[in-house]
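hi!! sorry for the late reply, been swamped w classes. u asked for the two structures so here they r. pasted raw, havent cleaned anything up. first the sequence of the first protein and right below it the tokens
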Amino acid sequence: MSLPLLVLTGETASGKKQVGLAAARAIGAEVIGMDSIKVYRGLSVGAAAASPDQVSGVRLHVVGIAPPDVPFSTGRWVDEAKKAVASIESRGARVAFLGGTSLYLRALIRGFFDGPPAQPEIRARLEAEAARVGIGPLHRRLAETDPDAASRIFPNDLRRICRALEVIEVTGRPITALQEENTKRPFDRPFRVVGLRLSRETLFARIEARVDRMLAEGLIDEVRRLLERDALRGEAAGAIGYREIVKHLRGESTLAEARESIVTHTRALARKQRKWYPRFPEITWIDRGPETPTDELVEKTLQEWTRAE
């Protein structure tokens, strides 16, 4: 029987990157990124990419593999993850997934439904409508026709809102119903899923500190370089941190206003993630206090990853 696949997840800014990379290094595991922004090349500071010291001795997969102006779907992530698992295990190494993108976690554990082929004409029409009247009316329309999909898609996630509406228009059925009937798991094997959990106060304090660190480490220059190359589009352009700095560089907000918007939107993301996680009873939670040493979190993660082996 194959060994369980290892997973470390948690809300944004929970510190899972540092803990997960250290835990993977300790057991010689290779890491597959489970983050929808870190898949893009050139998005380093704003994506909170791992530093060279953190990565040292750990081989990473499905990180920095796509240009930031090309959409990267959950289906593609599943395909890349399957190839990475096969490659890692061919070398006799353990596999550890690391990240907090809920759609990727669900695809990994529950399975993935690719759906009917994309319809560019319908997508273009919906995107044009959003440009005229805003994303809000499209999200409200989705809530009326597929409330389950609307509840799990961020109100500003234009790509996924359009996809859900597109599926309804093409098939006459909600994407949620089709997913329930046709979802397939990419890996027919057990998982050991660990999550880092923080109090609201601790998490929000870490979010503010991380935003300030990103600004100090050159987020504005990173966004400026991407804009100069016309390489910031689609989902990458809408990512938290990037869209706020784009507005600042266009003169639509002060730096202080951009910083506050990044903090506010990151907190909203964390709240959304917190509502998602109860759907995954497989997760074994490790509570992290404001002063919990990283070494202690690494040890607890390893205990859960390797129990009964």
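now the second protein. again sequence first, tokens right under
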Amino acid sequence: MNKASNYERKMDQSKVRVAVSWFFIIATIVLTQISITRRGSDSTVDSSSIMQIQITGKYLTGMKQIIEQNPLLDNKRLPQLEQGVLNNERYINHLSAIPILAEISGREAALKELKRMVSDPGSVLDSKNIPVFYQLYNDGSSSLDPEQIAAVKSYGWAGRLALSQDKPDSDPERKAVLQSAFRMVMLAGLLTIMALAVIAGGVVLFIIAIVQLKKGKLKSHLELPENPNSLLIETFAIYLILSTVLPLLFTAIVPGYRYGSIFASIFAGLLPIIWPLLQGAGWKEYRTALGWHRGKGLFREIGAGIVGYMAGLPLMLAAILVVMFLIKYTGETPSHPVVFDLSSSPLFLLLLACVYAPFVEETLFRGALYSYLRKSLPWIVSAVITAFIFAILHPQGWIAVPAIGAIGFNLCAIREWRGSNIASMTAHALNNGSIVLILIISLA
């Protein structure tokens, strides 16, 4: 009787701890969305727009060079390029677009747009520098003082393009800026060819996976703990709580240190992993639940991660098309608050995206959360729930949920297929690494 009573008491305690964990998970999701909404309405934070304008500007400037240097190409495309700048609301509200417009349509077009900005400075996100750009295009780069030159250079490649606008193409500074634009066009062409090839391979792998699944040959190798231990969901809840609270505390203690919240987030991801061990969980059962094992072998699991990522590309591509549709009809654009690190410390961002994020997020999302859900739900339901929470907690905003959710769903499918988290970590690192590397090369 006492044993039965103890068992029932433990079960009741477990249910309470699970309920409390879900309360904090839902509360963190709500707070995260409020924070994202506030950040999106803050017009002073516009790193994402600068980055997007710079990449597009490089491509357009490079295209102009190719069109002008090749007589076989149609010069009628130049006015189309100009309209592509003027018709984009993000461009006409940002000074980063002025050098691009000047390069495509000439200095007079840039001055005309600057005069519009002078008459309506409230529509320009960085209006304080309008006089500097107007002086630059009206009087030339030699008229600027060192402080004004520094202000223009803060716009990255677009700023360097602006400062070289009145110099001959043979000038070393001007030549370096134009060559960077030309390389951008070549990179875009190469990436397009590679993407088409990878997507084609992904479609083949996706079809093979569906056929194998229907034939019952695609088996699950997921190993779950014998008992539906509440420690897994508690671990995930603690991770979300710490990732919300620690950055705020760090920012309050060390104000003005822009990397503070990032370092705090790193600790927030690592500390909860030891929680079940502190509660007496068995190491073997715990690491199995998290997917911390070699599966069929390290290199075989890495290869499976690459194949699994490619097989999920059709699903991810479909989700990206949905996001593009939402962007077109809502005017909102997904952005990540750490884009400033691309120019200041690309290596740090690469390590963060390709090492830390795959390890921590796969351990906690596809490890703790997915394993807990999988004890009582079918894999596809568990994958949808995990993918949704994974996507909604990312700082890109609700508009990116379909794309990030598709990635999260694919990572869950890989975890279900392989059991080991090595494969899903590999796929996660491949996804993040390819995006960050493309951005680093594009912004160089």
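hope this helps!! also noticed smth abt the second:
Confidence is low (pLDDT under 50) at residues 3-8.
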